[in-house]
Design a protein that fits this description.
- With 239 residues, the chain is of the alpha/beta class.
- The protein folds into two domains: 3-143, Rossmann fold (3-Layer(aba) Sandwich); 159-235, no CATH class.
- The protein contains eleven helices and seven strands.
- The strands form two sheets. It has a five-stranded parallel beta sheet, sandwiched between helices. A two-stranded antiparallel sheet has the order 4-5.
- Strand 6 (97-102), helix 5 and strand 7 (118-121) form a beta-alpha-beta unit.
- The longest helix has 18 residues, at 179-196.
- This is Response regulator.
- Residues 24-137 form the Response regulatory domain.
Length: 239
């Protein structure tokens, strides 16, 4: 091998500071805020990121290339992320690492039952938590390169991504109280709110979920959630 080729190969080897160098991570995530957090974590870890915001887009990606790891949100606009988890887990060749993720509590087993290797609960608190989740399920030769101590650096995405998520939710809410749309937007808003630590907005989204489950009228609960979304858009509330 020529000297230049040796240098290029060395540049692709994982290091303690960049333990995911050489990997391609497909993030299937509809939240701009959560995806920006993932982008920063991949960047800090040395991994290349590809993004899809729905099942349809993710399947197009997977037809074109095979990522080293795929991280799939369970709540997507065109279906459940568990469908894609099962497809990736059962594909031949299999995607190396399949992780589920959600801002909703108590959904880890749902992802594991669908075939995920592991689960990331949003918000992901540190860079090391993200790195460890991916490294844990990589082949043995990657495990040997794993640094003894992973980073405890906290990742703080740009708040503009949060505003983008709020605008997306407002657009859906403006379409009316279609049951399918409400189910999606309630889980979307709840997940984003929990990721950023906005308790009142998370509670309002949960109010819609609870009302739907109990078969109660949705007007008041939906109005409360929509009002908080609009308030944060207009005032750009700092959380």
């Amino acid at each position: 091998m020529e000297d230049l080729e040796l240098f290029a190969a060395a540049q692709r080897l994982p290091t303690a500071r960049r333990p995911l160098l050489g990997l391609t991570v497909l993030v299937v995530e509809d939240s701009r805020f959560a995806c920006e957090a993932m982008r920063l974590m991949c960047l800090r870890s040395g991994a290349r990121i590809r993004r899809a915001d729905c099942l349809k887009s993710a399947r197009r990606h997977l037809q074109a290339y095979r990522p080293s790891a795929v991280i799939i949100d369970l709540g997507l606009p065109d279906g459940s992320g568990t469908e894609l988890i099962a497809e990736c887990a059962n594909s031949n060749p299999r995607v190396g690492v399949v992780l589920g993720t959600s801002g909703d509590l108590g959904r880890e087993q749902e992802a594991i039952d669908a075939g995920a290797d592991g689960f990331l609960q949003k918000p992901i608190s540190t860079l090391g938590e993200f790195q460890g989740a991916v490294l844990k399920y990589l082949p043995a030769d990657w495990q040997q390169r794993r640094p003894a101590a992973l980073s405890d650096e906290a990742i703080e995405p740009d708040m503009l991504a949060f505003q983008d998520d709020l605008a997306h939710a407002a657009d859906i809410l403006s379409e009316g109280e279609d049951a399918k749309n409400l189910d999606y937007v309630a889980q979307f808003v709840g997940g984003v709110a929990r990721s950023i630590g906005d308790g009142p907005l998370a509670d309002a989204a949960q109010g819609v979920v609870t009302a739907r489950a109990a078969g109660q009228p949705l007007g008041a609960a939906t109005a409360a959630m929509a009002g908080l979304v609009q308030d944060r858009l207009e005032k750009r509330v700092a959380i």
